[in-house]
């Protein structure tokens, strides 16, 4: 990436991250399958796809906890950015912990330290945020103030928020069976409505999804969801779009979440108030600061 591209990507990161200054996004690809033979038989046994997807978030709560891996890509103005995360999530307490890694520079060297994120109902906590925040402090963001409901801002979609978005499924079809990590899964493809999801969501995600319904360019979210035979989400890919106010263009974002290792303990503890940074957060760092590590 040359200096002009670097500056453009930096501006994009400032937009997508809003107050927290993280870039995110990716396009969602999909292929169709025909129903024949065993696939047709399985389709008949899958039940109503919309009803199945409406129940997916509740099934995760019953599962308790799991490990999670996230990938988010954004494409706008010829620039593509990918952010990856990995961690654990407690679905009953709606608490998660992710280590989010920002993109590497063209030489393959990391430009940023990994960011630790704590996901909680109504709040996002970030450590190693940079931009003048002391290394031992956390940044707290009120999700209700984010126009995307933190589906994009943190560079990773909250796994339970992604599941609750399926409560807003309007149309869906069963594609067929496949495997993920050796586990048999049922593949569904459809479209969810953010406003409808907000009305059916738990108290912890209701305001966030309602904010996203108003903040995105469209409230409709195309998705591909892969559920195991117990009804637990194993993989979900969701596409979002919003208007980039700085560049006056639409940003295409796609978030992919993988869930595995169900039952893995998720010991997530939120930071005490004394460890939360109360100063001003810079929206974006100059490239010279990022490259120098300051």
Summarize it.
This protein has 294 residues and is an alpha+beta fold.
Please tell me about this protein's structure.
By secondary structure, the protein is α+β, with helices and mostly antiparallel strands. Helices cover 24% and strands 35% of the residues. The protein has eight helices and eleven strands. It has helices at residues 3-17, 38-45, 49-54, 56-63, 159-165, 194-200, 203-215, 287-292; strands spanning 65-76, 79-90, 95-101, 115-120, 123-127, 138-142, 169-180, 183-193, 220-228, 233-244, 249-260. An eleven-stranded antiparallel beta sheet has the order 6-5-4-3-2-1-11-10-9-8-7. The longest helix is centred in the first third of the chain and has 15 residues, at 3-17. The model is unreliable at 1-41 and 284-294 (pLDDT under 50).
Helix content: 10-25%
What's the number of helices?
8
How big a fraction of the residues is strand?
Answer: 35-45%
Q: How big is the Rg? A: 19 Å
List the uncertain runs: 1-41, 284-294
On the 0 to 100 scale, the average pLDDT is 80
- The count of β-strands is 11
**How would you write the strand order of the largest sheet?**
6-5-4-3-2-1-11-10-9-8-7
Query: How far apart, in Å, are the first and last alpha carbons?
Result: 21 Å
* SS content category: alpha+beta
Which sheet architecture does the biggest sheet show?
11 strands, antiparallel
Spell out the helices and strands N to C: HHHHEEEEEEHEEHHEEEH
**Approximate shape:** globular
Which terms would index this structure?
alpha+beta; 35% strand; 11-stranded antiparallel sheet; disordered N terminus; 11 strands; globular; 294 residues; disordered C terminus
